[in-house]
Write the structure tokens for this entry.
Amino acid sequence: MERLVLKRKEFMLFQAFIYEHIGISLGEHKIYLVQARLAKRVKQLGLESFGAYYDFLVADKRGGELEYLSSLISTNVTSFFREAKQWEFLKQKLHEILEQRGGKLRIWSAACSSGEEPYSLAMFFKEHLPRDKTYDIKILATDVSSKVLKIATQGIYSHKACNNLDAHYVERYFSSLYHNQQPAYQIDESLKKMVLFREFNLVTGNYDLFKST
């Protein structure tokens, strides 16, 4: 099969489809990135062109291919305790927020990727909530990609993914294991119980999901 080239008209079709169904806005300069990410899938399906793949995508009424497309297009940039300033702000305001809400918090980690953000929240609360009181805290973590949610649910991370974590957090909230023949860390079950992971599309999803959480 010859090298696949994404024509500008084809790119514009994908550009509009992805924005409408996934909520990701792709600028004109992303044409080569989209070409690179979709080419392998086009070949896997035995299709002749990106145009044929677009037709296949639109014809898939069950949504399975849309989910696959989401995993290809999404850029999952995440880490534990990203953006130090926001954690410092939360630390300063935590007790005030808890008092205002009667000790009850419902937190939504949207586009949670592989789980580092919601697990960071869980560790944060474990560290900073008074031990002599009981609080009602639930963290809902959603992402459009079932692939990254599987990683999040397992809670297994490479040593590299935990490099920026203070040793105290690693010792207290992770256990060592081998995963895919590589040394890794697994998140503690007490943190897993604080987080509910769900697949959710921010554009097309049913927001009634949040009424029961």
Q: What stands out?
A: The chain has two domains: 8-73, 84-212.
